[in-house]
Design brief:
This protein is globular. It has a single domain, classed as tt1808, chain A (Alpha-Beta Complex), CATH 3.90.1570. Helices cover 26% and strands 34% of the residues. The chain is of the alpha+beta class and 184 residues long. The chain is built from 5 helices and 12 strands. The N terminus is likely disordered.
Length: 184
Amino acid sequence: MAAADSPIATAVSLEAFRATYDTREDGYKYEWIDGVVEKSPAMNQEQAFIQAVLQRLFTQTAVYAAGGLLAAETDMFTNPQQLRKPDLAIYTAEQLADMREGKYQVPQWIAELISPTDNFNKVIAKVVEYFKAGVTVVWLIIPATSQVYVYTDAASAKVCEGDGLCSAAPAFPDFELPAESLFA
């Protein structure tokens, strides 16, 4: 287990988690999983490039035109005991309105940018967790192999590479691009 993947404390309440970790700016992302804080590196420059490519694509979609948002590392409860911060997520205008009222939302599309230190078992468990929470499409973007694993259910993935199209359908059918454009 990599140091960045190991819990950094014994069980803490959600309130204690928020008080301690919500405003930290130390280069790490913190998630609250069954009362245990999980620490992982925040996005690096390579991952920020991928985010920028996806942001440009997002501005050409119907959900963007209707007021939606492509967000990075935004709080998402997958259940009452799990507070995740997906690397990237798309929220509709309706979801944003609910967020303004303090209602947590589950995005229809999520992307996780996989680094060499990510633990495979934890990543797959997170994919399963996302689908149980109601996510429609999950992309695992793997810069090390220039591949994108596109899940539309927790049991199988389409692997996109080269000029193969990665699509966010059925969540957002007009959000698609060749895998290679993420790694240029």
